[in-house]
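Predict structure. Chain length: 128.
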Amino acid sequence: MDNKENVVHSPGLLGGITALAKNVVGLLVSRAELAALEMAEVRNHLIELVAIFAVAVMATWFALAYGTATIVALAWDEMGWKILLVMFIVFVVLTAVLVMKGISMLKQGKLTFPETMKELRNDRDMLL
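Prediction complete.
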C-alpha cells in the first residue's frame, strides 16, 4: 500500500478561504432574496398609502368646490359669514382624519423591512 492513499487531505488555508467566501456569498444572496420579498410587501403598502393620499386630496378638492358653494349659497341668508367658518371646520376635521390614517400606517411599520433587518442584526452579532 502506498502511504499517499492513507493520508487525509485537509482543505488548507486556500480551501478554507474559498469555503468562507462561498458561505459569505450564499449569505448575501439569501439576504438579498429576503429583502426582495419584503420589498414586494412594502411596495404594496406604499401603493396603498399613495392611493389613500390621492383620494384624500381629491375628496378635499371636490368637497371644497361643490359642497362649499352649495352650502354657502343655501345658508347665506340665515347665517351670513358664519357658514364659511362652519365649512372651514368641517374640512379641517376631514383632512385631519385622513392624515392620521396615513400616519398610523407609517407607525405600524408597514414600510419597513423587519425580517431583513432582524437577520442582518443576527448576522452582524454572529460575525462580531
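Summary: The chain has one domain: 11-117.
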